[in-house]
Write a structure and sequence with these properties.
alpha+beta; 17 helices; elongated
């Protein structure tokens, strides 16, 4: 899951001050012929603003997004100090702002920008571009870039294919099954099929890593896909599998619909919510629910109920079957069709979080 790295605010910014700063950045970074030392100072100043908390203001991200083409241009500068600073800026923004800069990821991971830069004959510049893409995919990935990246697996440049194979592995690590499934034919027919048979050893190695995650996520499809592979590739995958399946960080942070109060939940159900039992109160707490699965052990309880909210009596009955003591703290996850419930009991209070799947 992509999480922003919080920085302590050391300066109180106003939106007017940020606007004025960006006006200067647009002027300085617009022309590649501008004195390189001024452009370098502008890139450093932008990083300083992020460190000082300017990114927390509403107008910062829109202005930074608008400045993206000018920042991208700096990555091509022949002076290594400029691409280095531009790369550090992009990586810092991704780490700190997280999914708030998905629009910037969409603008940068293109054939006109970073995907062209990683194809540069200048290895230093290409490496800076590579680091940017990895950080953007780690911290602020958007599914829009998947087809563009996979297309680069056909690139004649072995170095590009090697880097792209790493991005494909990153896709399998950070995106949810639902998102990956939308592009599954591209992954199977281009990314995996091409990568597993690539002439470059490192591309094949990265592709086997991707395949093992794919196999874990889509076992039925993987069986058929594996059958179509040549025997030497099957053997290499089998040997790799014995070393263990790579861990994933999925799913990514797609926001779910959240029901913020008991009134909203009552609209979804014909049941009356019992407010007494062992718990003194049932509180429906407002919580931003992400597409990441709750980090709790799944309950063995398999509950079917036509209403949106499972009755408290039914919950108690299932708890008793599972030998859960009434006075014990617990966390349960229950799934019902397109709804999921995260139920937590601590002390005399039960909190129930409800989100759509």
């Amino acid at each position: 899951m992509n999480k922003a790295k919080s920085l302590k605010q050391t300066k109180s910014w106003t939106e007017r001050e940020i606007q004025e700063e960006f006006e200067g950045f647009f002027e300085t970074l617009a022309d590649i012929e501008t004195d390189w030392s001024k452009r370098l100072e502008a890139l450093k100043r932008l990083q300083e603003m992020i460190h000082n908390g300017a990114y927390q203001k509403e107008n910062f991200i829109p202005l930074l997004t608008k400045l993206t083409p000018q920042i991208s241009t700096q990555l091509n500068d022949l002076r290594s100090a400029i691409p280095k600073e531009a790369s550090q800026l992009i990586c810092l923004a991704a780490k700190v702002c997280g999914d708030r800069i998905e629009g910037i990821t969409d603008r940068l991971v293109t054939k006109e920008s970073l995907l062209r830069i990683i194809n540069s004959a200048n290895k230093i510049i290409a490496e800076y571009g590579h680091k940017c893409i990895l950080e953007l995919l780690e911290s602020s990935a958007t599914p829009k870039v998947i087809p563009r990246v996979i297309e680069e697996m056909a690139n004649k440049n072995q170095g590009v294919r090697m880097r792209v194979s790493q991005y494909i592995t990153k896709f399998f690590e950070v995106f949810s099954e639902g998102i990956l499934e939308k592009y599954i034919l591209l992954f199977e027919n281009v990314a995996l099929a091409g990568g597993l048979a690539d002439a470059a050893q490192e591309v094949r190695m990265n592709s086997r890593r991707s395949y093992l995650i794919y196999e874990k996520l889509f076992p039925d499809r993987a069986v058929e896909f594996f059958r179509r592979l040549d025997a030497p590739i099957q053997k290499a995958i089998t040997e790799e599998r014995q070393n263990g399946v790579p861990e994933t960080k999925k799913p990514l942070k797609r926001k779910k619909q959240v029901y913020e109060s008991s009134d909203n939940i009552l609209k979804q159900s014909n049941n009356q919510l019992p407010m007494k039992k062992k718990a003194d109160a049932i509180t429906f707490a407002k919580q931003e629910v992400l597409e990441e699965r709750p980090k709790v052990q799944p309950s063995k309880i398999a509950m079917r109920n036509s209403a949106a909210y499972p009755s408290y009596e039914k919950l108690q009955e299932n708890m008793e079957k599972e030998n859960v003591p009434d006075d014990e703290e617990f966390t349960l996850t229950l799934k019902e069709d397109d709804l999921a419930f995260l139920i937590e009991k601590a002390g005399n209070e039960v909190r129930i979080y409800l989100c759509s799947l």
